[in-house]
Amino acid sequence: MYTVGSVATVYLNVKGRIDIDKEITKAKDRLAKATEIVEKQKKTMDENWEEKASEAVKEMEREKLKAAEVEGRNWQASIEQFMALKIE
Question: What sign does the CA torsion over 49, 52, 57, 62 have?
């Protein structure tokens, strides 16, 4: 499985065709980036933010947070699948 973004995931049979350890490292790096974005968004969306931001900005920031959370879950799933390929 390869995460293309928060809305698309590609499934390919890659066992024996790729360096699994290298792919795990890449996926972990991308998971870390998605986690950083989630943390940044949560800091941006503090208590004062709710009072100060317009509805349009609130919606945009909520969507950014949601997309980063989905992307993080997808990268975590990719890591788990690559790890399973190593065991087989």
Answer: positive
